[in-house]
Amino acid sequence: MPAKMTTAMVVAVILAGGFLSAENARAQDAPSALADQLKSQYKLAKVGMDANGWSVTEAGTVLVIQKGGILGVPPANLAMAAATYKDGELHGPNGFAAAMVGKVSRYLTVGEKIYIFKMDVSVKNDKISLMIIECDSCNGVQQPSSYKSQVFFQFPKGYLGKADASQVQDVISQVLAPEAAPSDAPQSQPQQQAAPSQPASDPPTIQIGQTIDQVKAAWGPPERIVDLGKKQIYIYKDLKITFIDGKVSDVQ
What we know:
This protein is α+β, with helices and mostly antiparallel strands and 252 residues long.
């Protein structure tokens, strides 16, 4: 009996160990999976040195700032003052952090376009960090600056372990929304005013004594002709003309 108990206990330990290992593997895979999903939705820009100093060397997904409170610093600056989005509110950097970069920093404005150039996803801490940089070419600035900043997205406990990329994107879009695609719908053309209608011309007149040729020139050929020798009747849609010896004698 003790031997059987020992064997059962060993089996239980092995099974429990395998279960825990699988859970740990899933937990380790989760951050990578979510990060990969997000990076497939947001193409990260590349930042490096060129003849003008630090700048964007490869463009990424263009995003538009939706909320104020993001403090930018020059791209070569090592210190940054991060903003944090939590519980639906964007909180700018605290006074000490802002003061540390105060001489070289400026707040990025709502509507300004930026790239993400670095993304860190921590499922364990339910936090996402985005490093962003101005898209000078998108903003049409005269003096390129490429200011950069950092924004933390703090989620409720356990949120990132269950959320998919689309849910996380919805939250990020509250602060950094994708640039709207240009409309493909053709612009409506201004309606042309209808040309003023021409007044209806009076029907040609018929006079007693007119010849058959004169009547046909004005009215065209009749629908029917009643030939009675010296007397002929030309029948039109709403008109009957009587000719005697080739001249109009009566109109009905």
